Structure prediction request, 323 residues.
Amino acid sequence: MTKAIRIHAHGGPEVLRWEDVPTPEPGPGEALVRHGAVGLNYIDVYFRTGLYKTALPAVPGMEAAGTVVAVGDGVTEVKPGDRVAYATAPIGAYATERVIAADRLVKLPDGIDFHTAAAMMLQGMTAQYLLRRTYVVKAGDTIVVHAAAGGVGLIMCQWAKHLGATVIGVVSTPEKAELARAHGAAHVVVGHAGLVAEVKRITGGAMVPVVYDSVGKDTFTTSLDSLAPLGLMVSFGNASGPVGPIDVGLLAAKGSLYLTRPNLATYTAKRADLVRAAEDLFEVVGKGAVQIRVNQTFPLQEAAKAHVALEARQTTGSTVLLP
Prediction:
């Protein structure tokens, strides 16, 4: 048997249950992975609450690292004994072992342990596509990053600085402001109410070419108002709730703006893109340009406590669940 956190109904953290489940057998194209660490991400909350739909009962979690135990027919990407990591649908990572499509796994370099890998795959590859593909950040750019002291935010601040950009980070507390500064944010705004004025001051009125917003409903308008004409609004999360319906004419009125709502699954749907994203991430982590901060750990069976901390914005950096 395998242990897993399962949900039988949508709701608060209390719906997360620690249960016995049969250990699955890998089918054709699949691998059985024994987890060494599981990543905690806000998308797990969305599946738990029902904001993102899934059949029940379900095992949450999209990210983990561990060792391949067995493979099914036709698998060429990995073999038993390989150290691997993943950040992908379908959900199911909150378990001691799971079966997953082998072409969604990437092999870990020797210098990256399971804790670090589980903490960085989803957040790090998200940072990769946001900074290198959705908008190609270049030296001299000034960009806005919301939730700059969160897992994705800390990686983005470091990576963008490495690329030569100036980061304006937005955080919720003075303590988080210090953390964002320590990880590469050149300017930090506490609370989003004063963001537009600060962006105008910092840029001399030019505003910014791109805003990365994972907060959602509460910050959408201030994010749009921080953009330069023809700027790009990247809405990639809903921590404060989903953005409501918008009048597309608003984009014209505010300077012929662009709006996108990207996700990692689309950007890594092709294996070549998945491998490239992972290799980019491994490179910047390996050279020390990006440091992954695992600031909290919880036993996997206490996933409910981890969700409480995450939703209360009591976490910084990355959090991992230990089987």
Notes: The longest helix spans residues 114-134. The chain has a mean pLDDT of 95. The first strand starts at residue 2 and ends at 6.
